[in-house]
Design brief:
Order of helices and strands of chain A: EHEHEHHHEHEHEHEEHEHEHEHEHEHHH
Structural class of chain A: alpha/beta
Strand order of the largest sheet of chain A: 3-2-1-4-5-6-7
Number of domains of chain A: 2
Structural class of chain B: alpha/beta
CATH superfamily of the largest domain in chain A: Glycogen Phosphorylase B
Order of helices and strands of chain B: HEHEEEHHHEHE
Largest interface: A-B, 16 and 21 residues
Number of strands of chain A: 13
Largest sheet of chain A: 7 strands, parallel
Distance between the termini of chain A: 15 Å
Shape of chain A: globular
Helix content of chain A: 25-40%
Radius of gyration of chain B: 17 Å
Strand order of the largest sheet of chain B: 3-4-2-1-5-6
Strand content of chain A: 5-15%
Largest sheet of chain B: 6 strands, mixed
Oligomer: heterodimer
Number of helices of chain B: 6
């Protein structure tokens, strides 16, 4: 049997440590394991290092050896050799002029531009080099799959597929023209909706991370409703392969893992911790592991809001992928903060569910992480307010003290259906069915 | 004090030096310091145009193959900069009418600072054209983008990047 060739466009890919990287890695792995030859198109390490300011080189070892990675340069900064005299000599004045005129131009031209499919986003300048790099290779592929954001990857996939006359699919890690937090129309430049419609119309499959987003897209594009599919994020077995021990008495360890961002309901969690802490065994701790923000510059303002050791709080910084399982196994309770919306699930909820110890899901009612973890026998739901979180922490503490090793094993077994190997098999199936 | 050309020609290895356009702001300076350290520790020769840190203007050969060309005194002596400082001082002591002028002069100065600070170093940069083929040109703040734009025209093959 001839092997099938997949061109996978994933802007955020190791050594990037953006949240979408894990799904992209799992997708690559799933296709390689299913016998596909995979070529990944992504950006350069230089961009991640110089302009994003943070990366995690340990993630490079997670890329399957059989996958080829093609790095196409991108920069937020202009190519100065392409810049004209006025902008070259007065860059600050040019930027001010552009900021002033942009909205005026948009509103004046809205009646025309809203009817033109034109993609304007910070990453649009990556599309042409990607299309050119693939055309230059002169290689044949059987299918193109793109993951977004950035959604410029989708447009690159559409154009490459058009040129090579092959099908393409798009994996929406977030909704594009629908605001993930409100469910309303996202505020985007005129013409973006037409670009999305053209991409959705032409795609063999549109893949989403939860039912709510898939349904929102099916409603938005009724003609393409049957193309909207769900591939859950799931958890990596590597992240939970250590089975936690039963509680043997002494101080309790509550833990949060993930990239801290200002959408997290962190404040009520910290306040609730201060309330509950005095009821716990002496020496109990709340441990936070992860990066502070996605960009190097986000760390400092976030660090300022964190409590100190006097509050029984410990910030341990980034936890590398290879240390995640040990981190979870060292905890008694996992706390998962999630911004509230039916469209938001958070990949971390699957990991927390699979560890086997009690978890506290902090999300506003109606949120998808609450729905996903609702049937978990050890999950406590909390609204993002101090009282609700404090009650959930107390309930989780009781559950932890009562659970035996059989209970831990039972939960771990029950969560197997969320293993990424299982969830990603659906992604491969969808692409294979559309060939 | 030796001229920049003398320093470059008399010190071996500077014909492939890396050029660092540090800009005129503290942020640009901080990022230039990091870049200069990285390059120097990997043995690269570096010519750093520094318009922020105080000190006598002109080129100085530092240790480890680093030439620093300071021009902060000339930058701070430019008429719009002096006018801005004066208007801000008056605004602080006399209040509103001067606040408006201070704001206008600050905006005008910010908008044109890249061009006029480039003019302060353009002679020295252009003099390097026949002596150096830079391994890379890096600029460190928005104002230094002007110098980088000119550098891109002076050395059409040199990689240009922002720190």
């Amino acid at each position: 049997m001839t092997s099938r060739r997949l061109l996978y466009i994933a802007f955020w890919y190791p050594p990037s440590r953006a949240s979408g990287v894990y799904r992209a890695l799992a997708t690559t792995r799933a296709f390689v394991e299913a016998g596909w030859e995979v070529t990944v198109v992504t950006t350069t390490e230089r961009f991640l290092e110089n302009e994003i300011g943070s990366l995690d080189r340990s993630l490079l070892s997670e890329i399957p050896a059989a996958a080829r990675v093609e790095r196409v340069p991108f920069s937020f900064d202009p190519d100065l050799r392409e810049v004209g005299h006025f902008r070259g000599n007065f860059p600050v004045m040019w930027q001010a002029w552009r900021s002033l005129m942009g909205p005026i131009k948009d509103s004046l031209l809205a009646p025309i531009t809203s009817r033109m499919p034109e993609l304007e986003e910070s990453y649009s300048s990556w599309i042409d080099p990607v299309v050119a790099a693939i055309a230059e290779r002169g290689e044949k592929f059987d299918h193109v799959l793109a993951t977004g954001n950035p959604f410029s990857s989708f447009e690159a996939a559409r154009r490459i597929a058009d040129e090579l006359d092959i099908p393409y699919a798009v994996d929406f890690r977030d909704p594009w023209t629908i605001d993930v937090f409100t469910g309303n129309r996202a505020r985007l430049p005129a013409g973006t909706e037409l670009v999305e419609k053209r991409i959705v119309d032409g795609a063999s499959s549109c893949i989403h991370v939860n039912d709510a987003i898939a349904e929102a897209y099916a409603t938005k594009y009724p003609d393409a409703a049957d193309k909207q599919h769900v591939v859950l994020n799931g958890f990596d077995q590597d992240s939970v392969h250590i089975t936690p021990a039963t509680y043997a008495g002494g101080p309790l360890r509550f833990g949060i893992l993930g990239t801290v961002n200002d959408r997290w309901p962190l404040e009520p969690i910290l306040q609730a911790w201060r309330v509950v802490r005095n009821e716990l065994p002496v020496g109990s701790k709340l441990i936070l592991g992860g990066h502070l923000g996605y960009f190097a510059k986000s760390a400092e303002p976030l660090e300022r809001v964190l409590p100190g050791e006097a509050d029984g709080f410990e910030f341990i910084g980034a936890v590398s992928k290879s240390e995640v399982a040990a981190f979870y196994a060292s905890l008694d309770v996992v706390i998962v903060p999630v911004p509230g919306s039916p469209l938001v699930t958070s990949g971390k909820i699957y990991e927390a569910m699979a560890v086997g110890i009690p978890l506290v899901c902090v999300q506003a009612e109606g949120g998808d992480a609450r729905r996903v973890s609702g049937d978990h026998p050890l999950a406590q739901m909390a609204n993002p307010n101090v009282q609700s979180v404090a009650n959930a922490l107390r309930a989780a503490e009781r559950a932890r003290k009562e659970q035996g090793s059989d209970d831990i094993q039972f939960v771990r077994q029950a969560m197997r259906s969320f293993d990424r190997q299982v969830t990603m098999a659906r992604m491969v199936q969808l692409i294979e069915e559309s060939r | 004090m030796s001229s920049l050309e003398d320093l470059v020609t008399s010190t071996p290895g500077f014909d492939r030096a890396f050029i660092l356009l540090g800009g005129v702001t503290e942020k640009g300076y901080d990022s230039a310091v990091g870049r200069a350290k990285t390059w120097s520790s990997s043995g690269e020769k570096v010519i750093w145009f520094d318009g922020w840190s105080p000190g006598a203007n002109g080129p100085i050969l530092m240790e480890q193959g680093l030439i620093v060309v300071r021009y902060s005194a000339a930058e701070r002596n430019r008429l719009p900069v002096r006018a801005q400082v004066k208007a801000e001082n008056r605004s602080a002591s006399r209040g509103d009418p001067w606040a408006f002028w201070a704001k206008m002069i600050r905006k005008l100065n910010t908008a044109t600072r890249g061009y006029f600070s480039w003019r302060l170093i353009s002679g020295q940069v252009r003099a390097l054209q026949s002596l150096v083929e830079p391994g890379m040109v890096v600029y460190c703040d928005d104002h230094a983008a002007t110098a980088a734009w000119h550098a891109a025209r002076i050395w059409p093959n040199a990689p240009i990047a922002r720190a």
